[in-house]
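Teaching soon. Got one?

===
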Amino acid sequence: MRKAITIMIVLALGVSLWADGTPAIKTKGQTVEIRFPDHRPSDRTETYELYMVDAFGDGWNGASVDLSVNGALVIDDASVPPEGDEAIATFDVNDFDYITTAWTSGNYDYECAYAIYDASGNIVAEAGTADHPELSLTHTVDVSGVNIFANSGFEGGTAEWGSYPSSSFDVITTGDGMYNSDDTFTAYDGAKSFKMWGLYWDGASENNLFHEWSGDDAVAMVGQTIDMSAWFYSHNADFIGQGNSHGKLTAKYFGPGTNGEWWNDMLFMDESAYFDASTATADTWTNYTLSTTVPEGVHLMQLGFMLYQPTSGDHGSVYVDNFVASAQASGCNLTHDLTVNMVDSYGD
């Protein structure tokens, strides 16, 4: 069962906003570079901390931030009070929870910044700083510390994920009804799971959900081995094993193509074992894995899940949960600056 959210506000004056201990600038209107420390002392065991600062020390001047976990508002209108330079709020999270914030502007937004620290006191996200100037953020809780997929438990719906052709899928919540059955759904973990079914086109079709890297972001990952893992499920009333369809983990790699048409320049695709009539057991969550190495010449890569339907007569659906991808260490920080956009995979 998910833990109840607890919130605590702590105010303090005169604390430096600078990671190296240099006193905060106190001249109104000056450009200020706020830098958060990588670590703050913590005696917490499970709660996360929202740490808010004001560069001038006179509060946020009407600005505030809301923080939601899995779409539920848990911190409302948090702010640094007048004559203050910091404020703290704490909140409970679980692995795979999806954190989002919404910013309400005040008179001097450029003086405001905030960061989220995990239970161990390590910074996991920040907003309003030189490196992350936007005053809103998203963050996926990752107890393992290695997952490069955002919103990997689908607790935030399909936010952060791309899809093609962007139909025949949904995010299902525990307690929802099941197709063609009186049963109700139970997620593998948390409250939500992703569900995909066939497109029912004439001829074979593939339905895709993925995270995507392109250009320099893809090139920076060349040579890295990425280990992917997810949990699959299929209900007896809409079982993937009733026909010839199958689900699988996939890693697609594309070159730059001619005239930028990368979708016509597929280098290759790695795929996991199939979740199908020969391997799936109805009503049972099963773990599937895939290990893939990013090739030379890659311009765009998509890592995710595919449901392949050979014909419109092949039925069945697959649920997916707790999707994890980890990459071996390299020169780039894969867990800090991941940006994923919803795109049309084939450019049409």
In short: Residues 217 and 300 are 9 Å apart (CA to CA).
